[in-house]
Amino acid sequence: MGFFKRAREICIIGIGRFGQAIVKKILSSNASDIRLVLVDNNERNLLQFKDEVDGVYVGDCADSKTLEALKIDEFDVVIVATPNNIEIVATLSELGVKTIIARAFSSRHARVLRQIGVTQIISPEEEAGKKVAILVSNNSLTKFSENITEIRDGFVSTTVCIKNPDIVNKNISEIAFRSEYNVLISLVQRDTKTFLPSGDFKIKENDLITFIGELSDIIEITEFCTKDKKNKIKNE
């Protein structure tokens, strides 16, 4: 008997230039397991996409009644692509949306957004549309995003608890972290000790390894390190 894979439901609020860039990147990825819904208070912004997405709605998303009518809490990811996003984000958080992506225009703005419930911050210097498309197209976003911290210039860091038996009891140099996964190891924590590891450092189960890299690479290495079944290492 086969298993039905539920489509990931993504809602984008605000279809201005930033929102349009995100929509186009997601559509160009040809992901078949995404259900995409767009919301804007200007119908003209929605017209170009109405035949390409699963739903378009005109409404003011600062109004909780609009969001409740959309059953916004049932979406896997909500992207707030409007510049004035604090009130919308606060309402989404109050309604129980678990994964919220929004753009910050300053470090202070980013702090406020995190305090009111934003899961992932997008900074304006980045290729925002591309980054968001990667985020929402990846099934691991909801699982891993809370542990991802933005650094700058598109780089992020995360700390991963090692579970994959393919890398347990192997030296760091035996695994293609840099050449294949395109990530760097900055720290390893084991019990109460912290290490700056060299290539001959042997990885143990439950080690906490801090990686630095671009978002898509960080998600990939997190998936790999947390698997609990044998999987082929890339450089073998």
Automatic annotation (TrEMBL):
GO molecular function: monoatomic cation transmembrane transporter activity
GO biological process, alphabetically ordered: potassium ion transport
Entries under InterPro entries matching the protein: NAD(P)-bd_dom_sf (IPR036291), RCK_C (IPR006037), RCK_C_sf (IPR036721), RCK_N (IPR003148), Trk_Ktr_HKT_K-transport (IPR050721)
Stretches assigned to coiled coil: none
Domain RCK N-terminal stretches: 7-123
Recorded superkingdom: Bacteria
Name of a matching Pfam family: TrkA_C
Gene3D superfamilies reported in the protein's UniProt record: NAD(P)-binding Rossmann-like Domain (3.40.50.720), Regulator of K+ conductance, C-terminal domain (3.30.70.1450)
RCK C-terminal domain: residues covered: 143-227
Protein name: Potassium uptake protein KtrA
Species the sequence originates in: Metamycoplasma alkalescens
Gene: ktrA
